[in-house]
Design a protein that fits this description.
Blueprint lengths: L9 H17 L3 H11 L3 H18 L3 H9 L1 H50 L4
Length: 128
């Protein structure tokens, strides 16, 4: 008749972590999400139980709702999600640093070329 969903396996867990992390990154909310998860990690089990309670109603609209409830039951899963978000945040920060460094190098190269042009023009002027 009715078969209750079983807890998620490691493969499904990793897919969920990746999907959530990519979605959070897409919205540019990595740091706020990390803060939120760190603050509420002790409450994840209670939140998961509330999700299980409401899953017969909400599960009709969102088929993966029960999977996320099982995901939140284990604090280790929340910690893995936090680690994934932190690694994405570090990658973004490194990309920003690299872009800034490249921009500075271009600016320095442009200044050097302008200085070379000015010196060349100075040499080309007839001396009095």
């Amino acid at each position: 008749m009715f078969k209750a969903p079983e807890p998620i396996d490691a493969k499904k867990r990793d897919q969920m972590i990746e999907a959530v992390a990519q979605r959070v990154q897409q919205f540019g909310m990595l740091v706020p999400a990390i803060f939120f998860l760190e603050m509420n990690k002790p409450l994840s089990y209670i939140g998961a139980q509330a999700m299980h309670f409401f899953s017969p109603i909400i599960g009709v609209l969102f088929p993966t709702f029960e999977d996320y409830a099982y995901f939140l039951e284990d604090r280790e899963n929340v910690e893995l999600l936090i680690q994934k978000l932190e690694s994405l945040s570090e990658q973004e920060e490194e990309a920003r640093r690299q872009a800034k460094k490249e921009k500075q190098l271009k600016k320095q190269a442009k200044r050097a070329s302008l200085l070379d042009e000015a010196q060349q023009m100075d040499k080309d002027l007839p001396s009095q």
